[in-house]
Amino acid sequence: MRESKAVDLLRERFGPGPKPVVARAPGRVNLIGEHTDYNEGYVLPFAIDRYTEVALRPRIDRTIHVYTAAVDETFSTHLPLRTTKRQGGWADYLIGVLWTFSQAISLPHGFDGAIWGNVPLGAGLSSSASLEVAFAVALVRLYGLEVDGLELVKLCQRAEADFVGVPCGIMDQYAAYFGEAGKALFLDTRALRHKTVPLQLQGTAFIIVDSGVRRALASSGYAARRRECEEATRWLARKFPGRGIRALRDVDQEMLEGVREEMPGTLWKRVRHVVEENARVLAMIEALEKGNPEEVGYLLCSSHASLRDLFEVSIPEIDFLVDWGVKHGAMGARLVGGGFGGATLHLVPSEREEEYVMGIGSAYRARFGRDAKVIGVGTGPGAKKWHHG
Ligand code: GLA
Fold first, then answer.
1. Is residue 343, in this structure, part of any structural domain at all?
2. In the predicted model, is pLDDT for residue 2 greater than 70?
3. Does residue 264 form part of some domain?
4. How many domains does the chain have?
5. Which of 172, 252, 319, 323 is catalytic?
6. What is the pLDDT of residues 170-216, one digit of tens each?
7. Residue nearest atom 8 of ligand 1, based on CA coordinates
8. Distance between CA atoms of 319 and 330, rounded to whole angstroms?
9. How far is the CA of 185 from the centre of ligand 1 (A)?
10. Nearest ligand 1 atom to alpha carbon 30
11. Domain encompassing residue 72
12. Is the residue at 150 inside a domain?
């Protein structure tokens, strides 16, 4: 890596020392396939051109110091890790990854480290997964470990689910590691295999508009939806014994129609979202292959309506941004990520991008009295491509 802000920071903070290892991992945007990953379904994320970079260099003792520019703080601990308590901040992602690593192997020495990144925090672009994956790749390089890519992804997901306490699926960490520039990843979260889908929609741009709303409900609401999906799976497995229902992935439209009157209404709506969202992922791949932005836009809007009305994870601020977009020239827009706040994804004609960005910002301010942050995103390589070409 030719230039590295994390290496500069490391030297600035900790002075001269041995040559550091450096790792990078990007954030992601999920084009479609929301709340399907923990139901063993399909997702279609792409890695973005913003990333987190981690530089680490060995120490002779067993102390760990890691400075992060984003919050201007240094986290310190020592090996073997004794405290496994959450601190409630960014360091939890590091402790989570370290903890998961140190359960499998003994880490012989400590390190000094620095983190730099330009993935906006908390904007639904998965800055957390990019930090986990970059840190995990850096640890692998620092200690010279043999860890297969998929194992590393699973380890990062476990760190977030078991340690940080967000029971997330595998999409974000997977995209941060396996993403490729110019392509979306069609990931089957049951098989844990992906195909790449070229992302070329001539004359269009993807824009992220962050509502700025961060709700404590985000993680509890997410966990509640997960529980509802598990409950619905048990209900349907009892109803259709012998049909091999292990996850909502195994449910089809026909089964769903058959239990409309009988199944508890809320659970029915959740399942309908998941079944149709999986189908929309497949339709999206076709639309991309045909290079048809109108069709892509239509699918984005259908996904949003489903997240709002069936899965019920939207909020008024997010609905406003999506509706405004559709009324003002976007081909499509939707909530991205887990919901209950966060950001929206808009597909707009490139030549109208500037006017669109100004318009949506002032409309949002007029309606809610706060600023929406607009972020233009392109695709970028995942950690694997950065490091192995
Ligand atoms: C969050 C989780 C993902 C996924 C999405 C919803 O981003 O980390 O695993 O479940 O929400 O699609």
1. no
2. no
3. no
4. 1
5. 172
6. 999 999 999 999 999 999 999 999 999 999 899 999 999 999 998 77
7. 168
8. 14
9. 15
10. 12
11. 5-198
12. yes
